[in-house]
Sequence to fold (356 residues):
Amino acid sequence: MALPWLAVLLTLICCSMTTDHAISDPDPPIKNLRIDPERKRLAWDQHGNVSEIGCYVNSKILKKAIEKPYCSLGDLSCEVKNYTVKVIKGQPFSAWIQYPKQGNPLAAADNLTCRVHDVDQLSCSWAVGEEAPANVQYHFYLKHPFLSLQPERQTLFRFLVNGTSGGSKIPCRQMTHRLEEIEILAAPNITKKWCNESYSFMEWEVRSLFTEDIKYELEIQKGTDLAYKEETELKVLGLRNPGPYTVKIKAMDSLFFESRPAGQWSAPQHLDCGRKDASFPIWLVYLLAPLGALLLVGLVFLCRRWPLMQKLFPRVPHVKDPVGDSFQNERMMAWDPEQQSQEECPVVRVQVLGET
Fold:
């Protein structure tokens, strides 16, 4: 009874090798099945009467290759996948390969993280794999057609870390994101602030190359009260009867703030609005200081030009009172115009007249 079962088993193995593996056919229609990473193709060498071949990824049909020896794959990932080609029209035949080459997944770079920060800086970090060899070396790649970061939105960037270690196979690790998805918004820059006993004003700005829709979270603490938070899409803060208070501000994506990295807090801004000397805006000081200097220069100029003013606008001489001037029984002042014209600045000369 054992011999018939053995014959059946050998027949099944023979048939399986003929239809599912290229090595069973001494002259297969598909040879040298390979991945071309530069052109992102599943390619092969083809001969014989084969007109249509199907390409599969993990047993799912990708597309058909008609009269051409390759199938386009698009972006290749670090995930190990099975790539299969099957003859659809012609003698049944199939072949498959794995890509990338299988290695210990625990040797790959761990916890790959990338962030855009400080407006236009990109930083990526990763950890050594748990079971990576001691001599492992990791290499970072940024897959994008541009040579530098560009302020382009809705463009996918691919971040990849590959590893090498002598003869050991180290799987790669990758992540794909748009830059606005991994941006840490910079801390708002305070541009204006002033206050008095009845009102406080503050203004700020935030720079970003990738995020347009921004809102702001404010943490405000008045005096000894507990701090509270507010959200606004404006770039200004106004408070009535503020008293002394402290505020700090951070920016966030107004549409996807729950899935994006948190922004950076600004340095705490403290304003003591209860003091009278704190009510004068610094920008007003900068405005009045030049005006005061101009006024001082103008007074000096007028003082030095007083004789010219005297000539242009001479004083009206004293008009004699025919009645009052006949009685010289009191002390009176007399003005000497000749003596006055000799002085640089106006000086009053006083002459005391006695009784007649």
